[in-house]
Amino acid sequence: MAMADFAGSFEHSLDSKGRVIIPVSFREQLGENFTIALNSENTALALYPQTKWEEIKARLSQVRSTDVKGMMYVRYIMGNAFTGNIMDAQGRILLPQKLRSKVGLTRELVFVGMNEHVEIWDAARYQAQEAEAELDFADLLAHMEEKY
To answer: What does the alpha-carbon distance between residue 60 and residue 99 come to, in Å, rounded to a whole number?
Structure first.
């Protein structure tokens, strides 16, 4: 299977049961049995297609069991990952309450395509982050040109 190519941002609302509709353009690429976890900055949720989650798990499995600090990281990541998720007939998924609380999700959400995965942000937090990126755009561009 080819690597997913997620792009764009879409606003959706969380329902009273903690479910949200996945944007149509992301559904097929996510596939069945995707993983819901925290993003790398613990600022949003991340939806990983199975192929990408397998890559993450392979990297985590390289941590030696005697590496206390490394194992603490692995435990945190794996303890906050919910695998085997599928959408219902309406394209909805249940976002685990534990994860919603960790990243402060409220009713209004923004889905953001991040190349190989999708992030789900609280709308107000995402708008603030986007405004900050716009203000610092020249610095962000210089960072990217220097690092990558």
So the answer is: 20
